From TrEMBL:
This is Anti-sigma F factor. Coiled coil: none annotated. SUPFAM superfamilies: ATPase domain of HSP90 chaperone/DNA topoisomerase II/histidine kinase (SSF55874). It is an enzyme of class 2 (transferase). It comes from Paenibacillus nasutitermitis.
């Protein structure tokens, strides 16, 4: 694929929108003809990032927005998932496997670990009171390339 293609999607920070976000990003990325494993990895990281934004970015009685930006450049996908919520006070602690700030919700605390392991590049930035942004990249090995 030549050139660059991009999309931006904003939606209410409601748990029922997580599957909408996952399917929309998967449809956008499908133009690269990813393998099923690559597609599942990307859908998983979108689910994790969006769920984190909804659950940790905003209180259950707050309204807020989640934004996903997807950029395809050649065979590389860049995803950015943002919220304007509470932000993360201690990023180092939040990135520790099994840590969760909401144990009462029976969260596994593996979101950042999963995202980091499924993607080629992973970066999270956050500022308390201003929100969180997760940027991820992955190179797609097109199935077309496997047969040539």
């Amino acid at each position: 694929m030549n050139g660059t293609n991009e999309m931006k999607l904003s939606f209410s920070a409601r748990s029922e929108n997580e599957s909408f976000a996952r399917v929309t990003v998967a449809a956008f990325i499908s133009q690269l003809d990813p393998t099923m494993e690559e597609l599942n990895d990307l859908k998983t990281v979108v689910s994790e990032a969006v769920t984190n934004a909804i659950i940790h970015g905003y209180d259950s009685n707050e309204s807020g927005m989640v934004t996903i930006e997807a950029l395809i450049t050649g065979d590389v996908v860049r995803l950015v998932v943002k919220d304007d919520g509470h932000g993360i006070e201690d990023l180092d602690l939040a990135r520790q496997p099994l840590y969760t700030s909401k144990p009462e919700l029976e969260r596994s605390g593996m979101g950042f670990t999963i995202m980091e392991n499924f993607m080629d590049g992973f970066d999270v930035s956050s500022e308390p009171g201003k929100g969180t942004s997760i940027a991820m990249t992955k190179r797609i090995e097109s199935k077309k390339a496997l047969f040539n």
